[in-house]
Amino acid sequence: MIVVLAIASFGVRFGTAEAASGDAKGLKIVIARPFDIVGLDPGFLTESAQVVDNIFETLVRRNLDEKLEPGLALSWKQLDDTTWEFKLREGVTFTNGEPFNAEAVKYSIDRVLDPANNAPTRSYITTVKEVKAVDDTTVHVITNAPDPLIPIRFNRYPTEVVPPKYAGEVGQEKFAQNPVGTGPYKLKNWDKGSSVTLVINESYWGDKPEVEEVTFKAIPEAATRVSALINGEADIITAVPPEFRSQIEDSSTAKLSVVERGGNTVYVGFKTNVSPFDNVKVRQALNHAVDVDGIVKNILQGAAVATNSLIGPKDFGYAGEPEGYSYDPEKARKLLSDAGYPNGFEATLDTVNWYMKNTDVAQAIAEQLKQVGVKVKVNNVESGVYRTIVPTGEQSPMYTLGWSSTNTMDADAAIFAVLRSGEPYSTYGNPDVDALLDESRSSSDQERRRQIYAEIQKRVIADAPRIFLYQENTYYGVSKKLDWKGRTDGSLPLRTIKRAE
Amino acid sequence: MSAVALTFFIIRLSGDPVRLMLPPEASEARVSEMREFLGFDRPMSVQFIDYLKGVMRGDLGKSLYFKQPALELFIDRLPATILLAAIAIVLAVVIGVSLGAMAACRKNGPVDYAVNAIVLAGQSMPVFWIGIMLIFAFSLRWHVFPSSGNERWLSIVLPAISLAAYPVAPIARTVRSSLLNALSENYIISARAQGFSETQIIFRHALKNAMLPVVTVIGLEFGSLLGGAVVTETVFSWPGVGRLVMTGVLNRDFPLVQTSVLMISLVYILVNFVTDLLYLYIDPRIRIDS
Predict the structure, then answer these.
(1) What whole-number distance in Å separates Cα of residue A120 and Cα of residue A333?
(2) B154-168, B177-191, B275-289: range with lowest mean pLDDT
(3) Are B78 and B145 within one domain?
(4) Are A279 and A425 within one domain?
(5) Would you place residue B32 in the very low, low, confident or very high pLDDT band (cuts 50, 70, 90)?
(6) Residue B66 domain-assigned?
């Protein structure tokens, strides 16, 4: 026992971060997410930017309707094919007193682009050739080729602006532990492996937020996270699995925030160069054989929306809901017969727990395909293994995958990586679609880009390189004491959290 | 040492940390560049020898995911786990010994059967299920204990109970059988003849002599507690080494997993060594010259 007491008094920190929405003065809240926080340098993240985006800011930000609005930049425009100009906000300082200016923007981007620093998300901004500080409040971003996505790139990590002097002095590792930014909050306390607490930045240039202090906790187990919310130990929880929806809705303390189609567009991909999936009739047949509406209704209990669209409704490039393949086993059998497989064939379908009820959905698909003579074996793959085998093409010829525009809210992120031939996650290749995809990345004419995405959509449906399934909803749990809604871009801007009326 | 070698190779065969560190759409070129940067492009044998050299120097490498020295991370989280495991083992011993003693006293009676049923249930319920049931009952329904975290002393109660559930079974069973053995010894018969009450006989005379196998079981179970901590700490969001290992494995964080396995093996060896020393104290026959 003496040993135990000694350990307790030395090592284990019982912090003081008391859960619950605060007192009369400042509002203090707890947000529980499934993951630990490992580093708070936005330039070198290997996790989501939900926390750092409250400490740091980007040149462009998104408002409550998730439309782009001025952040650290007041305005931006394209000067020529490869030059974008940003006019910066004046009088902004970092929480350590360093001034925010064009040099700071240049420094922040340069350190991510520098190959020696090996930033994990460098690929998000590799189209940038150079950042020029024209004067204190003017920045020119020079791109290697025309890039219509520059404003979006400067809305998202790794383009948050860091203080050059401080960041340079302390070095990358220390900076990630003791971040300094211009954002509405600053780091107060970090209990490693347990929680991070942010407190309001009194010298913030914008409106003063209602929430005074926020503790981000990691609670990996969903049932525990939901219990913590209902119990009042947490005020907002992320990543609520659909089976917990009713528990939150029925509680007297919390409410459910639904982001319809806020998640991945999930599909069964085909390796289109592997027999029999190299035959378009086979791919179309399998689309006719799967009852997507039934799966969404009965297995997912309405936690997703059946769709043939490659692009989410809030993303740039969305062109409404296109016609796809009706559920018609008879037609499926006929197409299989035409393709030379009157008795069907055998195949393996790989799946992974990244998606809602993935195994149940895969089993249902296998069962429905059996009705048209295709015998499918479902193979559940561990997450880390799947992240290795899919990009190297070692998965089975049928595999589950989901993709989304993540926080860019643009069709480019939603489809390029899974449709362009040669991309690690693509098992499809159509020269016409490739050409369109390439043009969509270089055309500065946004109207033209819209047309291109509509055209791509049409061709991909005809080619059927996948079984079109559905787009998942995302769910948040929010205390009834708060007024906040989950967002499609997945961010958690603390400054938008208010007390409930 | 074999544990170290085994871990080194198995985790390397089970996935690629480089892809988990980069965004999914990263190009092949970017992946190989990162691999080179981390030194994973070298032959595995070279990496292994390098690793062993590091271990000799006390350098266990830097966590890929946390970007901090792996040993530092482990040592930082160790006290939380030891505290949890220690409280769990104390709980398990108190409950296990009482149940075992009760069963032995009322051999083949209803109490014996009831204890047997409880023990069996405790052993067959998965740790995560017990944990979630405890949360539903004690924090959601009755609001007695917090569901997770480590902010308050009360926070440790539920994880400790759920971690204790498993070792209760082997402890109770061992106590029962070894107590029954002891109760048939001659000195017990003589104690009965002297008119001691049954309770006195069990707690004063029999239990002490029945403790030897029980101590062995406790020592072994302490090791399995460290394993159970991986699940318990994840369910209750307890910031110990169990969750650290979980994060390490999910992210294929080679240095972190290797360090954790090495250190847990050392703790296990240490606990068994202490158990052996305890024999000397409990059983005077083992002391050779004194």
Answers:
(1) 47
(2) B275-289
(3) yes
(4) yes
(5) confident
(6) no
Task: Out of A487-491, A492-496, B36-40, pick the least confident.
Answer: B36-40
What CATH number is attached to the domain comprising A398? 3.10.105.10
A305 and A441 part of one domain: yes
Contacts of B137 (CB under 8 A, 6+ apart): none
The reported pLDDT for the residue numbered A470 is 98
- Can you give the residue range of the structural domain that contains A463? 265-472
Kindly state whether residues B210 and B133 are assigned to the same domain.
yes
**How many beta carbons lie within 10 A of that of residue A313, not counting itself?**
14
Q: What is the ipTM of this complex?
A: 0.86
Number of domains in chain B: 2
The pLDDT of residue A2 is above 60: no
Question: Taking CB atoms and an 8 Å limit, are A4 and B83 in contact across chains?
Answer: yes
**Same domain flag for A25 and A161:** no
Instruction: Say what the pTM is.
Output: 0.90
pLDDT of amino acid B288: 63
Distance from the A63 Cα atom to the nearest Cα atom in chain B, whole angstroms? 25
If asked whether residues B51 and B91 sit together in one domain, one would say: no
Residue B65 domain-assigned? no
* SS3 of residue A318 by DSSP: coil
Tell me A320's DSSP state. -
Q: How many CA atoms lie within 13 A of B213 on its CB side?
A: 15
Q: Examine the domain organization and report whether A365 and A224 are in the same domain.
A: no
At CA A95, angle to CA A89 and CA A98, rounded to 5?
65
Residue of A nearest to B88 (CA): A4
In a domain, A51, yes or no: no
Query: Euclidean distance between the first and final Cα of chain A, in Å?
Result: 51
Could you tell me how many CB contacts below 8 A there are between chain A and chain B? 167
Residue A53, token pair as written in the block: 């985006």
CATH number at residue A152: 3.90.76.10
SS3 category, B16: coil
The CA distances from residue B135 to A224, A238, B155, B159, B235, in Å, are 7, 19, 11, 9, 9
* Structural domain boundaries enclosing B38: 2-57
Residue A49 lies in a domain: no
Evaluate whether residue A392 is within a structural domain. yes
Give the C-alpha separation, A467 to A86, whole Å: 43
Q: Is the peptide bond before A115 cis (omega within 30 degrees of 0)?
A: no
Give A17's pLDDT tier (boundaries 50, 70, 90): very low
Residue A177 lies in a domain: no
Q: What's the pLDDT score for residue B76?
A: 92
Q: Which of the pair, A467 or B250, is modelled with greater confidence? A: A467
Interatomic CA distance for residues A56 and A40, integer angstroms: 10
A36 touches chain B (CB under 8 A): yes
User: Residue A419: closest CA among chain B residues belongs to which residue?
Assistant: B25
C-beta separation of A486 from A262 below 8 A: yes
Nearest to A28 by CA among A241, A263, A276, A195: A195
Q: Order the strands of the A398-403 sheet from edge to edge.
A: A304-306, A466-472, A265-270, A398-403, A346-352, A375-381
- Does the residue B200 lie in any domain? yes
Say what the pLDDT of residue B289 is: 58
Q: Is the pLDDT of residue B14 over 80?
A: no
Shared-domain flag, residues A439 and A294: yes
- Indicate which of A388, A389, A410, A412 best probes the interface with B, i.e. most B CBs within 10 Å of its own CB: A388
pLDDT digits (tens, 9 = 90+) for A334-363: 999 999 999 999 999 999 999 999 999 999
Distances (CA, A) of A448 to A150, A436, A439, A451, B9: 17, 11, 9, 5, 52
CATH of the domain at B234: 1.10.3720.10
Residues of A with Cβ-Cβ distance to B30 under 8 angstroms: 122-123
B40–chain A Cβ distance below 8 A for any pair:
no
Are B232 and B180 members of one domain?
Answer: yes
Chain B residues with CB under 8 Å of A14 CB are: 150-153, 155
How many independent structural domains does chain A possess?
3
Assess A24–B contact: CB distance below 8 Å, yes or no: no
